[in-house]
């Protein structure tokens, strides 16, 4: 028996490879299917099943491509409907992978088709359960994504309570819980950094599993849920309806462009120029109107949160050799319209005599000095509302990056704005977006709040809830 968790940190997503006696199954595969094919080929195994726990909203699964390349059967739980060929399993239906048995446990709540998969070993003992977004380590799935008609978030939370208590909690304490996500995912609010645990321990420490009544569960699970990123519904639709092959996405996007060809295509196609370099490197020199979302951070979720149109043409500026990785990570969240990348990067652009822009980035000490000279400076904290509420500078305004498309229009193009986040990654994203939208006087505070805490600037942990509105 072989069970491997394949964890992708930038998405906080876990896929699983299961193998026994030359047969294999994949649970919740990512968009790029090459690694699964290579793993099975190396082990001399044939991929027999692709199990999907639900219609994912935070990433585009690789189920369609993987099925086409292997002939494996795609399996969803009860109530799922798809635009492609799939086996819709009955609750309690069993599937054999070598000596192993996989049993479907229909667990609606996060979504209506949400299903967990219980793995029983060759001796007939329940070994682990793949819980998708039904049960996380330290949390459960958010119940607000599948509201339809008269079905409310509270209704879904109630279904989730029933699913957990009727299907999951009765399993033996030693059963290992393998969830679909870990800390950093927007699919829950209190996930642990641990990516697996025993069910028995989760019964002791997971607040949602400790709820004594359905009413308490609904209240605790629904409290403090932020609106989902705009791309969630679009990714769910792609997972349900099918999508373009990843091979075709690479064919379109892996087009090296000389500076003049890059510039011409940018003008002709109305493409977004996306620069994925390190924030501080970007600040020193970038193509005018380019947006910076660094590849070394939570790249794909921020692309999904901030670029409204999945069909937006995108031109890339990357570090040397990073174009393919960037296209892969864009495709994971449904952005399939990369049309080329700048060959030779920003160095080639400058060598060709092309214009570059800059963003001023100052140290926390310089920021403190500027405030002491002018206490009326406009400073924007672009961290999430919960981060701001926990602790912030008393003179900063909360303007979460998540909602920049809503509050940009409130800014004065003639004003100078100082921006900071926690460490500098998000503030540079915000600065680049504002710059591209005509807010030219933006100053980034390098190192963010982590560096600011070492200054003498006064901080507070009290905030009026009304100040935490989106704009």
List the helices and strands and how they pair.
Blueprint: E1 2-8, E2 13-20, E3 23-27, H1 34-43, E4 46-51, H2 63-70, E5 73-76, E6 87-88, E7 94-97, E8 100-106, E9 115-120, E10 126-132, H3 153-168, E11 176-179, E12 197-198, H4 199-205, H5 214-222, H6 232-241, H7 246-253, E13 256-257, H8 259-269, E14 272-275, H9 279-284, E15 291-292, H10 299-306, E16 314-317, H11 323-331, E17 338-342, H12 345-351, E18 360-362, H13 364-373, E19 378-381, H14 385-390, E20 392-393, E21 397-398, H15 404-407, E22 417-420, H16 425-436, E23 442-445, H17 448-452, E24 459-460
Parallel strand pairs: 3-4, 4-5, 5-6, 10-11, 13-17, 14-15, 14-16, 16-17, 18-23, 19-21, 19-22, 22-23
Antiparallel strand pairs: 1-2, 2-3, 7-8, 8-9, 9-10, 11-12, 20-24
Key descriptive features of the protein:
Oxidized Rhodanese, domain 1; 24 strands; 17 helices; Metallo-beta-lactamase, Chain A; six-stranded mixed β-sheet; 471 residues; alpha/beta; disordered C terminus
């Amino acid at each position: 028996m072989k069970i491997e968790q394949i964890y992708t940190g930038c998405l906080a997503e876990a896929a699983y490879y299961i193998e026994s006696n030359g047969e294999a199954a994949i649970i919740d595969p990512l968009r790029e299917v090459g690694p699964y094919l290579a793993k099975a080929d190396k082990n001399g195994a044939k991929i027999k099943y692709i199990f999907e726990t639900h219609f994912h909203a935070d990433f585009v699964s690789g189920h369609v491509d993987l099925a086409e390349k292997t002939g494996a059967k795609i399996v969803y739980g009860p109530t799922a409907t798809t635009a492609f060929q799939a086996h819709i399993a009955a609750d309690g239906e069993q599937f054999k992978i070598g000596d192993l048995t996989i049993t479907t446990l229909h667990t609606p709540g996060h979504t209506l088709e949400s299903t967990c998969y219980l793995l029983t070993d060759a001796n007939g003992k329940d070994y682990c359960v793949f819980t998708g977004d039904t049960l996380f380590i330290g949390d459960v799935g958010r119940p607000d994504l599948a509201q339809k008609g008269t079905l409310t978030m509270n209704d879904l939370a109630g279904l989730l309570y029933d699913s957990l208590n009727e299907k999951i909690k009765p399993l033996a304490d030693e059963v290992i819980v393998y969830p679909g996500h870990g800390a950093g995912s927007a699919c829950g609010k209190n996930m642990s950094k641990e990516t697996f645990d025993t069910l028995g321990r989760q019964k002791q420490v997971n607040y949602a599993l400790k709820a004594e009544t359905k009413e308490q569960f609904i209240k605790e699970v629904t409290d403090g849920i932020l609106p989902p990123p705009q791309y969630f519904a679009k990714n769910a639709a792609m997972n349900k309806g099918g999508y373009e092959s990843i091979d075709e996405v690479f064919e379109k996007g892996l087009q090296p462009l000389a500076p003049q060809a890059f510039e011409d295509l940018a003008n002709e196609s109305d493409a977004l120029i996306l620069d994925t370099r390190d924030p501080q490197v970007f600040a020193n020199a970038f193509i005018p109107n380019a947006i910076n979302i660094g590849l070394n951070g939570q790249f794909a979720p921020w692309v999904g949160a901030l670029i409204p149109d999945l069909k937006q043409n995108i031109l890339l500026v990357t570090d040397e050799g990073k174009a393919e990785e960037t296209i892969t990570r864009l495709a994971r969240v449904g952005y399939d319209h990369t049309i080329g990348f700048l060959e030779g990067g920003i160095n080639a652009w400058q060598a060709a005599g092309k214009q570059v822009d800059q963003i001023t980035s100052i140290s926390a000490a310089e920021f403190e000095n500027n405030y002491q000279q002018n206490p009326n400076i406009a400073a924007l904290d672009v961290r999430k509302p919960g981060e701001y509420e926990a602790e912030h500078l008393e003179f900063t305004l909360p303007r979460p990056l998540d909602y920049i498309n809503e509050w940009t229009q409130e800014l004065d193009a003639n004003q100078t704005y100082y921006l900071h986040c926690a460490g500098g990654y998000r503030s540079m994203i915000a600065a680049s977006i504002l710059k591209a939208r005509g807010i030219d006087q933006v100053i980034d505070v390098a190192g963010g709040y982590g560096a600011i805490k070492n200054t003498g600037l006064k901080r507070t942990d009290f905030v009026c809830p009304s100040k935490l509105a989106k704009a």
